[in-house]
Description:
By secondary structure, the protein is an alpha+beta fold. Helices cover about 35% and strands about 15% of the residues.
Amino acid sequence: xxxxxxxxxxxxxxxxxxxxxxxxxxxxxxxxxxxxxxxxxxxxxxxxxxxxxxxxxxxxxxxxxxxxxxxxxxxxxxxxxxxxxxxxxxxxxxxxxxxxxxxxxxxxxxxxxxxxxxxxxxxxxxxxxxxxxxxxxxxxxxxxxxxxxxxxxxxxxxxxxxxxxxxxxxxxxxxxxxxxxxxxxxxxxxxxxxxxxxxxxxxxxxxxxxxxxxxxxxxxxxxxxxxxxxxxxxxxxxxxxxxxxxxxxxxxxxxxxxxxxxxxxxxxxxxxxxxxxxxxxxxxxxxxxxxxxxxxxxxxxxxxxxxxxxxxxxxxxxxxxxxxxxxxxxxxxxxxxxxxxxxxxxxxxxxxxxxxxxxxxxxxxxxxxxxxxxxxxxxxxxxxxxxxxxxxxxxxxxxxxxxxxxxxxxxxxxxxxxxxxxxxxxxxxxxxxxxxxxxxxxxxxxxxxxxxxxxxxxxxxxxxxxxxxxxxxxxxxxxxxxxxxxxxxxxxxxxxxxxxxxxxxxxxxxxxxxxxxxxxxxxxxxxxxxxxxxxxxxxxxxxxxxxxxxxxxxxxxxxxxxxxxxxxxxxxxxxxxxxxxxxxxxxxxxxxxxxxxxxxxxxxxxxxxxxxxxxxxxxxxxxxxxxxxxxxxxxxxxxxxxxxxxxxxxxxxxxxxxxxxxxxxx
Length: 666
Ligand SMILES: [Zn+2]
C-alpha cells in the first residue's frame, strides 16, 4: 500500500487573484502567467461579436435545451423525484451515461461569463441548477445521475464506459469557474466532496482503476490550484501514471482508443479517440509543471509535434475516423470523411495553451490561432443556436440523407450527444484569457483582438489597448495606457504564416522587422506611446504533403490565419464544387464579401474550370487511352471563396476546402 500522504509534493503558493481556467501555482515550472479574464478584455471585432452572441443567444439556448432534453430533470430524479431517466440511448438500449457533463460545461461557461459581464437573467438560470446538483448529491459525496438513477449500487464498476470521472471532472471545472470568477463556493463544496469520494475509491493505494475518458486529471490539478490541497494533485499524477498498462482492457477499437496501449511517458504519437488524447495531455502538462516533471512534459510535447506534423487537418481539426472518433494513421486525413469534432479542436486549444504557458514557444499560439478560427468557430452557426459536431473539409452537393448533428451535412440545434455545444460556450466565454501572457520582464501578445490588457511586471502594473480588424486585416495598433518607470518588454507574436512583419514605434516611427516567432521591444514605455504592427496578408495557395493521398493534386486557399472554402451557394449556372478545378498559377484576388447574409467578410475571387461529366458509362472509371484526351470543361468562370468559418450558414450543402488543380493551356 502506498501511503496517501504526499510527502514529495510541495504545495505551491496559489495565484488566487487570476480569473482563468488554468492558473498554475507560484511553484509551477512555467514560463508565462495568464492575465485571466480581469486582465484581458475583448471589446470589438469578430471575437467580440461571437462572444456577444454566445452570451445573448447560445448560452440561454443551451439552458432551454438542457431542460427540454431532460438533462436537468435527471438531477431531480437523482434528488428523489420519481420518473424515467431521460437520455439518448445507444443501439443496445443503454442510455448515454455522460450527459451530466453538459450541465456542468454549461455552468462553467456561465460562471466565466458572469465574472466578466454580470447578468441577472443568466444567474437566475444557473443558480437553481447549482442548488439542484447539491440536492442530488448523496451523503457520501457521490453525484452522477446515470448511476444514481439507472445503476444504483453499481458505482465504479464500469470504468471503461461509465464516464464517472469524466463527468466529475466537468463538475470540478464548473466549480472552479464559480469560485474563481464569482467567489461562489457552493459548487466547489459539491465538487470537493465528490472528488474525495473518488479519491477514497481509486486514489493512491486504493483500487487500481482509471476512467475510459480522461478529463478528471486536469480538473484535479485545477482543484489543487484552487484549494491548495495536495491530495488532488497526487490523485491526478497517480491516474496518469496508471495509464497505458492495459487496466481498461481492450474494447472493440483496441486499447489505443482510450490511450491505455502505452504508458504516457513513452507514447510518441497521439492515438485513439481525439478528445480523450487532448484532455489526457492537458492533465499531463498540468501535472508536469506542478511537479517539475520534465519527462512527463516532454512526452506531451512529443505527441503534440507528431500530431501537427502528420495527423492534423489544415483547419487544425483532429480525428480522421467517425467510427471511433479517433486519430488515423499518419497522413490519413480524408477531407470528406473528416471527423474533426468541435470538442477535439477545443481540446487542442486547451492543450496548446498549457504548452504555451509552460514553454513560451509561440508555435503553440500559432496553433491556437489556426484551430480557434478554422476548427472551433465553424462549429457554431452565425445565429448562435446551431452546432456542428464534425467539421469535414468537403461536403458533397448531393447527399442521400440529411442527418442532423453527428453527421456532415447541417448544424443541429442540439445534437443527441451534446458535448460540443456547451464546450463552445465555455470556450467563447474564456477566449480573452488566450490573448496575452505576462512574466516579470513584460507582456506577450499572442492573439490579435481589439481590447485592453492589464499586467503585473517587475516594476508595477502596465496597461495597454489594442485596435485591429484582425483576422481580416493585418494591422494591429497598440497604445500604452499606463506605464512604469522601469523598462519592460513588449513581445508580439509574428504568426508562422507571416514571412515578414514590421513594428513601427512611437512618433519617430522607428521600424523593427521580424519573421515568424516574435518581435520584442524593450524600453521605458511612456503613456500614449503607440506601436503599429503590420503583417502583409495576401491570399496564398497552400499545397498538401503528397503523402496525404486523399488530397493529392489539390490546393487550398488561405489568407492570414484564415482557411478559405468554396460553397455551391456562390457558384452560378448549376455548377458544383465537385467538378471544380483550378490552376494554382491563376490570380487570386481579395475582395469584399459577396453575400450580405454573412456580414462583411473578405472573400477571395479567382477563375476556375468545371469539368464536363464524361464518366457516363457503367463505371466511374475509364481506360487510360481515353484519359489521354483532354476532358472538356466549361471554360474559366469567376469563383468566390469565403472563410471556412462562415460556411454552412446558407441553404446549399456543397463545400470544399481542397480544390483539384489543373494546369490550363495558355
Ligand atoms: Zn463534442
